[in-house]
Protein backbone atom coordinates (compact mmCIF):
# COMPACT_ATOMS: atom_id res chain seq x y z
CA UNK A 1 0.00 0.00 0.00
CA UNK A 2 1.38 3.40 -0.98
CA UNK A 3 2.46 5.79 1.75
CA UNK A 4 0.11 8.79 2.12
CA UNK A 5 1.50 12.21 1.29
CA UNK A 6 2.14 14.31 4.41
CA UNK A 7 2.06 18.03 3.69
CA UNK A 8 4.59 20.20 5.47
CA UNK A 9 4.97 23.94 5.67
CA UNK A 10 7.67 26.38 6.72
CA UNK A 11 8.49 29.59 8.52
CA UNK A 12 11.62 31.64 7.91
CA UNK A 13 13.89 33.73 10.11
CA UNK A 14 16.16 35.96 8.03
CA UNK A 15 19.64 36.51 9.46
CA UNK A 16 22.33 39.09 8.68
CA UNK A 17 25.67 37.25 8.47
CA UNK A 18 27.95 40.24 9.07
CA UNK A 19 29.71 39.69 5.73
CA UNK A 20 29.55 42.45 3.13
CA UNK A 21 31.04 43.23 -0.27
CA UNK A 22 31.99 46.56 -1.84
CA UNK A 23 33.37 45.15 -5.08
CA UNK A 24 33.57 42.03 -7.20
CA UNK A 25 36.54 40.52 -5.37
CA UNK A 26 34.79 40.83 -2.03
CA UNK A 27 31.58 39.44 -3.49
CA UNK A 28 33.52 36.43 -4.78
CA UNK A 29 35.16 35.82 -1.41
CA UNK A 30 31.81 36.08 0.32
CA UNK A 31 30.15 33.60 -2.04
CA UNK A 32 33.00 31.18 -1.34
CA UNK A 33 32.61 31.21 2.44
CA UNK A 34 28.95 31.83 3.31
CA UNK A 35 26.78 28.81 4.20
CA UNK A 36 24.66 27.18 1.53
CA UNK A 37 21.56 28.65 3.14
CA UNK A 38 22.84 32.10 2.15
CA UNK A 39 23.29 31.11 -1.49
CA UNK A 40 19.80 29.65 -1.43
CA UNK A 41 18.34 32.83 0.12
CA UNK A 42 19.94 35.14 -2.42
CA UNK A 43 18.70 33.07 -5.36
CA UNK A 44 15.17 32.36 -4.10
CA UNK A 45 14.17 35.39 -2.04
CA UNK A 46 12.28 36.96 -4.96
CA UNK A 47 10.15 33.87 -5.40
CA UNK A 48 9.27 33.74 -1.72
CA UNK A 49 8.33 37.42 -1.40
CA UNK A 50 6.56 38.06 -4.70
CA UNK A 51 4.51 34.93 -5.22
CA UNK A 52 1.55 36.75 -6.78
CA UNK A 53 3.63 38.60 -9.38
CA UNK A 54 4.97 37.28 -12.66
CA UNK A 55 8.49 36.32 -11.67
CA UNK A 56 11.48 37.93 -13.24
CA UNK A 57 13.85 36.18 -10.90
CA UNK A 58 17.30 37.66 -11.14
CA UNK A 59 19.35 36.57 -8.17
CA UNK A 60 20.43 39.19 -5.63
CA UNK A 61 24.03 38.99 -6.82
CA UNK A 62 23.19 39.99 -10.39
CA UNK A 63 20.85 42.75 -9.20
CA UNK A 64 23.57 44.28 -7.02
CA UNK A 65 26.26 44.01 -9.69
CA UNK A 66 24.03 45.79 -12.20
CA UNK A 67 22.48 48.42 -9.98
CA UNK A 68 25.21 49.22 -7.45
CA UNK A 69 28.35 48.61 -9.51
CA UNK A 70 26.96 49.47 -12.94
CA UNK A 71 28.50 46.35 -14.50
CA UNK A 72 25.67 45.47 -16.85
CA UNK A 73 27.42 42.74 -18.84
CA UNK A 74 28.54 40.86 -15.74
CA UNK A 75 25.12 41.35 -14.15
CA UNK A 76 23.50 39.78 -17.20
CA UNK A 77 25.83 36.79 -17.03
CA UNK A 78 24.97 36.23 -13.39
CA UNK A 79 21.25 36.65 -14.10
CA UNK A 80 21.36 34.21 -17.01
CA UNK A 81 22.17 31.24 -14.77
CA UNK A 82 19.36 28.74 -15.18
CA UNK A 83 18.69 27.98 -11.52
CA UNK A 84 16.23 25.18 -12.27
CA UNK A 85 19.01 23.06 -13.74
CA UNK A 86 20.88 22.86 -10.44
CA UNK A 87 20.09 20.04 -8.02
CA UNK A 88 22.62 21.04 -5.36
CA UNK A 89 23.44 24.37 -3.75
CA UNK A 90 27.16 23.71 -3.97
CA UNK A 91 26.92 23.35 -7.75
CA UNK A 92 25.04 26.65 -7.98
CA UNK A 93 27.68 28.28 -5.79
CA UNK A 94 30.44 26.97 -8.06
CA UNK A 95 28.73 28.47 -11.10
CA UNK A 96 28.70 31.91 -9.51
CA UNK A 97 32.35 31.50 -8.56
CA UNK A 98 33.26 30.43 -12.10
CA UNK A 99 31.67 33.53 -13.65
CA UNK A 100 33.18 35.97 -11.14
CA UNK A 101 36.65 34.44 -11.40
CA UNK A 102 36.46 34.59 -15.19
CA UNK A 103 35.61 38.29 -14.93
CA UNK A 104 38.47 39.01 -12.52
CA UNK A 105 41.00 37.18 -14.69
CA UNK A 106 40.31 39.33 -17.75
CA UNK A 107 43.00 41.86 -18.63
CA UNK A 108 40.65 44.82 -18.62
CA UNK A 109 39.18 44.00 -15.19
CA UNK A 110 38.66 46.99 -12.91
CA UNK A 111 37.63 46.33 -9.33
CA UNK A 112 34.88 48.96 -9.25
CA UNK A 113 33.58 49.80 -5.78
CA UNK A 114 30.01 50.70 -4.91
CA UNK A 115 29.01 53.93 -3.24
CA UNK A 116 28.98 54.03 0.54
CA UNK A 117 25.74 52.58 1.83
CA UNK A 118 25.23 50.34 -1.22
CA UNK A 119 27.36 47.43 -0.07
CA UNK A 120 26.12 43.88 -0.61
CA UNK A 121 25.15 42.36 2.73
CA UNK A 122 25.10 38.58 2.81
CA UNK A 123 21.94 37.24 4.40
CA UNK A 124 20.82 33.79 5.34
CA UNK A 125 17.50 32.22 6.17
CA UNK A 126 16.87 29.83 9.02
CA UNK A 127 13.92 27.67 8.04
CA UNK A 128 11.58 25.98 10.50
CA UNK A 129 9.68 23.03 9.03
CA UNK A 130 6.48 21.73 10.59
CA UNK A 131 3.76 19.21 9.78
CA UNK A 132 0.37 20.44 8.64
CA UNK A 133 -2.81 18.53 9.48
CA UNK A 134 -3.23 17.65 5.80
CA UNK A 135 -2.53 14.14 4.49
CA UNK A 136 -3.43 12.86 1.01
CA UNK A 137 -4.10 9.15 0.52
CA UNK A 138 -5.01 9.38 -3.14
CA UNK A 139 -4.97 11.89 -6.05
CA UNK A 140 -8.48 13.15 -5.24
CA UNK A 141 -7.48 14.10 -1.71
CA UNK A 142 -4.23 15.56 -3.02
CA UNK A 143 -6.10 17.97 -5.33
CA UNK A 144 -8.45 19.13 -2.58
CA UNK A 145 -5.54 19.85 -0.26
CA UNK A 146 -3.40 21.65 -2.86
CA UNK A 147 -6.40 23.88 -3.59
CA UNK A 148 -6.34 25.21 -0.02
CA UNK A 149 -2.83 24.61 1.34
CA UNK A 150 -0.67 27.68 1.97
CA UNK A 151 1.81 29.03 -0.54
CA UNK A 152 4.56 28.27 1.99
CA UNK A 153 3.69 24.58 1.81
CA UNK A 154 3.78 24.51 -2.00
CA UNK A 155 7.07 26.40 -1.95
CA UNK A 156 8.57 23.92 0.49
CA UNK A 157 7.58 20.81 -1.44
CA UNK A 158 8.59 22.19 -4.86
CA UNK A 159 11.71 24.26 -4.16
CA UNK A 160 13.26 23.51 -0.80
CA UNK A 161 12.92 19.74 -0.95
CA UNK A 162 14.69 19.63 -4.31
CA UNK A 163 17.50 22.16 -3.93
CA UNK A 164 18.15 23.19 -0.32
CA UNK A 165 17.48 19.71 1.08
CA UNK A 166 19.09 18.08 -1.98
CA UNK A 167 16.43 15.40 -2.50
CA UNK A 168 17.06 15.56 -6.23
CA UNK A 169 13.39 15.90 -7.15
CA UNK A 170 10.39 17.77 -5.80
CA UNK A 171 8.26 15.97 -3.21
CA UNK A 172 5.11 15.89 -5.34
CA UNK A 173 6.83 14.09 -8.21
CA UNK A 174 8.41 11.62 -5.82
CA UNK A 175 5.03 10.77 -4.33
CA UNK A 176 3.20 10.34 -7.65
CA UNK A 177 6.04 8.12 -8.80
CA UNK A 178 5.56 6.00 -5.66
CA UNK A 179 1.83 5.50 -6.29
CA UNK A 180 2.35 4.47 -9.91
CA UNK A 181 1.36 7.75 -11.59
CA UNK A 182 4.63 8.15 -13.45
CA UNK A 183 3.20 10.48 -16.11
CA UNK A 184 2.06 12.96 -13.46
CA UNK A 185 5.43 12.73 -11.72
CA UNK A 186 7.35 13.39 -14.92
CA UNK A 187 5.17 16.30 -16.01
CA UNK A 188 5.43 18.06 -12.65
CA UNK A 189 9.19 17.51 -12.66
CA UNK A 190 9.39 19.24 -16.05
CA UNK A 191 7.74 22.42 -14.77
CA UNK A 192 9.97 25.47 -14.72
CA UNK A 193 8.71 26.91 -11.43
CA UNK A 194 10.99 29.93 -11.79
CA UNK A 195 8.96 31.35 -14.69
CA UNK A 196 5.49 31.34 -13.14
CA UNK A 197 4.02 32.64 -9.90
CA UNK A 198 3.48 30.31 -7.00
CA UNK A 199 -0.27 30.73 -7.39
CA UNK A 200 0.15 29.85 -11.07
CA UNK A 201 2.18 26.83 -10.02
CA UNK A 202 -0.63 25.73 -7.70
CA UNK A 203 -3.12 25.84 -10.59
CA UNK A 204 -0.76 24.03 -12.93
CA UNK A 205 -0.21 21.19 -10.47
CA UNK A 206 -3.95 20.75 -10.00
CA UNK A 207 -4.62 20.82 -13.75
CA UNK A 208 -1.92 18.23 -14.38
CA UNK A 209 -3.23 15.77 -11.81
CA UNK A 210 -6.82 16.19 -13.05
CA UNK A 211 -5.71 15.64 -16.64
CA UNK A 212 -4.22 12.23 -15.92
CA UNK A 213 -7.02 11.23 -13.56
CA UNK A 214 -9.57 11.92 -16.30
CA UNK A 215 -7.45 10.64 -19.15
Q: What can be said about this structure in brief?
A:
With 215 residues, the protein is α+β, with helices and mostly antiparallel strands. 51% of the residues lie in helices and 16% in strands.
> How large is the radius of gyration?
19 Å
Strand order of the largest sheet: 1-2
Sheet with the most strands, sense and barrel status: 2 strands, antiparallel
What is the rounded distance between the termini?
23 Å
SSE string, helices as H and strands as E: EHHHHHEHHHHH
Q: Can you count the helices?
A: 10
Task: Report the β-strand fraction as a percent range.
Answer: 15-25%
Helix content bin:
40-55%
How many structural domains can be distinguished in the coordinates? 2
Mean pLDDT: 88
Structural class: alpha+beta
Contiguous runs where pLDDT drops below 50 for at least 5 residues: 50-55
Shape: elongated
